[in-house]
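Lab manual, section 2.4: Encoding a predicted structure.

Procedure: take the sequence of the chain (173 residues), apply the prediction step described in section 2.3, and record the output as structure tokens. A sample record is shown.
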Amino acid sequence: MSEVVEDVAEHDAGHVVLTGGEPLLQPDANELCAALDEHVTVETNATVYRDLDAELISMSPKLSNSTPDESAGAWREIHEDERLNFDVIESYMGSHDYQLKFVVADRDDLDEIDEVLASLSGYDRDRVLLMPEGVDRDILRERGEWLAEVCKERGFRYSPRLQIHIYGNRRGT
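Recorded output:
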């Protein structure tokens, strides 16, 4: 952990995003957030609650479009059982500045997003972000065109996958 803190200090970033898989599964995530002098955003799927020293909790609740196919065996059922934890989502909403970011593959996902939001005791529309699913620039552009219109209609924010538009689908970007 100290190496990460030192690396961040060398870059004088001002803002750090803790992400990658599910960062809150790491045992020292709390300590890392507290040790960083920068503003910290934690990107999480919101299935694990931790009282974090972070300025923003960016929650990406998993929709059914994230469920593995039948070939995943038992993992498919585990994923489906655990992909949404409304108690955790509401705990973050009540304790931190937050945003809810949904990855949208097609228009059918909008009904599921409505169901998730209706299951919450309250949320701010301007804290809901919709991001097109995809790792290909053309697919992202096509999905982004109609999804941006949905955001305008519903009062949500649009979140592009800028790293893919700039760098393509590469690790480390």
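Check your result against the sample. The chain has one domain: 2-167.
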